[in-house]
Amino acid sequence: MNLARFPRIRLGHMPTPLEPMDNLSKHLGGPRLWIKRDDATGLATGGNKTRKLEYLMAEALQQGADIVITQGATQSNHARQTAAAAAKLGLGCHILLEDRTGNTETAYTQGGNVLLDLLHGAEISRFAGGTDMAAAMEARAAELKNAGRKPYIIPGGGSNPVGALGYVNAALELVNQASEMGLRIDRVVHATGSAGTQAGLVAGLVGLNSGIPVLGIGVRAPRPQQEANVLGLAQRTAAHLGLPEGTVRAEHVVANCDYVGQGYGIPTEGMVEAIKLLAEKEGILLDPVYSGKGMAGLIDLIRKGQFGPDENIVFIHTGGAVGLFAYPDIFGAN
Ligand SMILES: *Cc1c(COP(=O)(O)O)cnc(C)c1O
């Protein structure tokens, strides 16, 4: 795999640390838990979208764009990182936010990520839940073109074969780190949503013949749909990389969607417990929408005895802690 032939702009602090979580491992009674700190990518409090934006923004500049358009849920971490990247590169940024949760609290509609979107100078417009957001982005792009601008559309979550290259790069980084540390990784676990993170990791780890399986914990779609989304994007990413057809197969894609609860962005008991546990045992902040539910899944599977005591499990912390401030009530604060 020759990633260097794809245009990339450095936006993040990489490599991100790969650290043991000894207190949590002890608390749960094994396996050996590790955390890959992609919450520490740096840009506007960090997160997984920064890796994708390194490739997406490079393509936008290559195409001569002067404004980027993207979309996400109200508390989108992707929107916030895109707004910051656009600010750094001197591009305009228009963000389309979809009300996916129906949460009308001011903290949710104005705080957390929304506060940072605005601080980075992005223009925001809001849409009802269920809107065809891809079509809304196209319509916005057409308006901007008519006004003489050069828009570049970034799909929700930055999840297309260009953005997924960021997680192919993360797979390379992780395998190199593990080999330097003499660490045998038995499984990688992370929260999966728009699928680009898992697709890039799978394409990268399979393309490298690493033998490391990936377990996605879903936060929105049911399992068949999530696995189909990840597999389709992983295969398109592999093709973009020039890997032989048939390299990425259905058996490489596993998404456990048992921890979504009532829906995307809606709190669950497991998520609240996971966030408290990581905060209290490891001094690490997870987020309520993605990494909290991802960790809730991992904790539950550990309790169900799904992993051997000597296995090394790497949880990828995909960021999002800014979203905690959009949910001030769920931790029993007063
Ligand atoms: C977007 C996001 C994810 C999910 O990544 P996808 O590539 O969309 O599947 C996980 N965690 C956080 C904090 C995110 O913002």
From TrEMBL:
One of its GO terms (molecular function) is D-cysteine desulfhydrase activity. Keywords: Lyase, Pyridoxal phosphate. It comes from the Bacteria. The keyword 4Fe-4S does not apply. Transmembrane segments: none annotated. Residues 10-319 form the Tryptophan synthase beta chain-like PALP domain. It is an enzyme of class 4 (lyase). The keyword Repressor does not apply. Its cofactor is pyridoxal 5'-phosphate. Its EC number is 4.4.1.15. InterPro entries: ACCD_DCysDesulf, D-Cys_desShydrase, TrpB-like_PALP, TrpB-like_PALP_sf. Gene3D superfamilies: 3.40.50.1100. PANTHER family: 1-AMINOCYCLOPROPANE-1-CARBOXYLATE DEAMINASE-RELATED (PTHR43780). Belongs to the ACC deaminase/D-cysteine desulfhydrase family. This is D-cysteine desulfhydrase. It comes from Teichococcus globiformis.
